[in-house]
């Protein structure tokens, strides 16, 4: 059993989710406290079950992270700093899968927890409430300060839950009572600084199309805009180069534009996937597409990025315009079934 110390409620404008701090042993979750995914942290390729680590506690409970790592379900360390295991066979732990956070190759743990939440997006089902559990990552054998890591986790988690990340509850669990009390103070201070308003949404469609692209692919974006303007039903196109006023909170402007656009066109290229901002827009577009009664997301595969598209993207009705085929792009924009 774990004991609740404090929690933060986060609304995306439609659903309220929570981030909760607990005291207790992660390996002693009750069936009522079941976690669909448990996030652990490790040095790259280092899964030795030490006496002080969560990986060690899992090993003593019959789950070898090293064995899971040898047979991963997905490896996203190159882009999101974690890999995801196959479902656990040991049902007694009340944990569905393990996600292992290994950020050292990309940056520091405080810098990359946002990548972790962004990367989890495709593996979470928006149709049911899912629970994710974690310790305060990278504070054990990796030695990062608990206050710093908890602040980074809270900042990233509130950001993503407010943008629709389908986690019903994020459980942050600290095993040591004295340490848990210190972290509760950090969480209380963070909660006191949060605005009381939820993410803005719009009841009307301010734009016909939200155009999501990397600045490196401006030529393709300009072509899309020209073809949309010819249609007559897509005159209002959101282009971040023109639509965001200098000095405004650009992230809030983008969030509102995505929520208030009838359709979303994304231009997929290596530069697009390399951009955290573009990937964030794509995940928000994916969520809108899942929640909508009709397709709203229309990906354009413009330049090959050297690997297979994620399965969920392959299932969306995307247009294959590789490599930089303007003729197919123009034809696609003319036939697109916009609302």
CATH topology of the largest domain: Leucine Aminopeptidase, subunit E, domain 1
**What count of domains describes the coordinates?**
2
Number of beta-strand segments:
13
**What portion of residues belong to β-strands?**
15-25%
Mean pLDDT over all positions: 87
Structural class: alpha/beta
Q: Largest beta sheet, briefly?
A: 8 strands, mixed
Query: What is the H-and-E element order?
Result: EEEHHEEEHEHEHEHEHHEHHEHEH
* Text of the CATH class of the largest domain: Alpha Beta
The total of helices stands at 12
- Helix percent reads 25-40%
In CATH, the homologous superfamily of the largest domain goes by the name: Leucine Aminopeptidase, subunit E, domain 1
- The CATH architecture classification of the largest domain is 3-Layer(aba) Sandwich
Catalogue the unreliable spans.
Answer: 197-204
Strand order of the largest sheet: 1-2-8-7-3-6-5-4
User: Nearest-angstrom radius of gyration?
Assistant: 21 Å
Terminal residue distance: 50 Å
Q: What shape does the CA trace take?
A: elongated
């Amino acid at each position: 059993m774990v004991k609740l110390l404090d929690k933060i409620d986060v609304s995306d404008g439609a659903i309220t989710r929570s981030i909760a701090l607990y005291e207790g042993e992660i390996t002693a979750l009750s069936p009522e406290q079941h976690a669909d995914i448990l996030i652990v942290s490790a040095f790259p390729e280092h899964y030795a079950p030490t006496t002080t680590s969560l990986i060690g506690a899992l090993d003593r409970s019959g789950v070898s992270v090293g064995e899971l790592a040898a047979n991963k379900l997905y490896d996203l360390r190159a882009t999101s700093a974690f890999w995801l295991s196959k479902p656990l066979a040991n049902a007694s732990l009340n944990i569905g899968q393990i996600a292992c956070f290994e950020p050292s190759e990309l940056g520091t743990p405080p810098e990359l927890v946002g990548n972790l939440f962004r990367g989890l997006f495709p593996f979470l089902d928006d149709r049911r409430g899912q629970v994710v559990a974690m310790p305060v990552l990278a504070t054990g054998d990796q030695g990062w300060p608990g206050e710093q890591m908890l602040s980074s986790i809270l900042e990233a988690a509130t950001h993503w839950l407010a943008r629709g990340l389908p986690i019903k509850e994020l459980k942050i669990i600290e095993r040591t009572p004295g340490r848990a009390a210190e972290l509760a103070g950090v969480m209380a201070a963070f909660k006191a600084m949060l605005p009381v308003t939820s993410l803005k949404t719009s009841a009307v469609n301010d734009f016909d199309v939200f155009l999501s692209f990397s600045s490196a692919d401006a030529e393709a974006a300009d072509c899309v805009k020209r073809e949309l303007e010819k249609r007559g039903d897509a005159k209002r196109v959101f282009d971040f180069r023109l639509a965001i006023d200098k000095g405004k909170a650009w992230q809030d402007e983008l969030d509102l534009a995505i929520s208030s656009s009838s359709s979303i066109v994304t231009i997929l290229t290596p530069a697009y996937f390399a951009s955290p901002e573009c990937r964030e827009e794509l995940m928000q577009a994916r969520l809108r597409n899942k929640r909508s009664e009709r397709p709203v997301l229309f990906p354009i595969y413009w330049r090959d990025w050297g690997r297979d598209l994620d399965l969920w993207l392959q299932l969306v009705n995307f247009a294959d315009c590789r490599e930089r085929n303007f003729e197919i792009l123009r034809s696609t924009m003319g036939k697109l079934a916009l609302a």
